[in-house]
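A.,

Following up on our hallway conversation. Structure tokens first:
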């Protein structure tokens, strides 16, 4: 560290993302771009459906339908990832189910 820099001048490292953050990002990445775009715009960026529809050149009904589909697929992918990770945790802890 150069002598003229103080500890306040050094940026602190970004905190590591939580396991939940990683699952959310992976589940979002598995959605098609059109579903991900609508889901992020509405649920994360909190844009009104009408604004999203205008930007995409789609009807409000089409955006709502796409949003419903996106939410369902996200939930399914998120739950699947969570189940897989829970199974992996059990295996690491030695708690494997003894039934075939």
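Then the amino acids I'd put at each of the 100 positions:
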């Amino acid at each position: 560290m150069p002598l003229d820099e103080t500890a306040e001048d050094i940026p602190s490292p970004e905190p590591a993302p939580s396991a939940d953050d990683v699952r959310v990002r992976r589940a979002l990445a598995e959605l098609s771009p059109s579903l991900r775009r609508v889901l992020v715009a509405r649920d994360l960026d909190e844009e009104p459906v009408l604004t999203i529809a205008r930007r995409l050149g789609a009807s409000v009904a089409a955006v709502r339908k796409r949003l419903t589909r996106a939410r369902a697929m996200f939930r399914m992918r998120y739950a699947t990832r969570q189940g897989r990770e829970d199974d992996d945790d059990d295996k690491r802890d030695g708690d494997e189910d003894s039934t075939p």
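The chain has four helices and no strands. Curious whether your intuition agrees with the design.

B.
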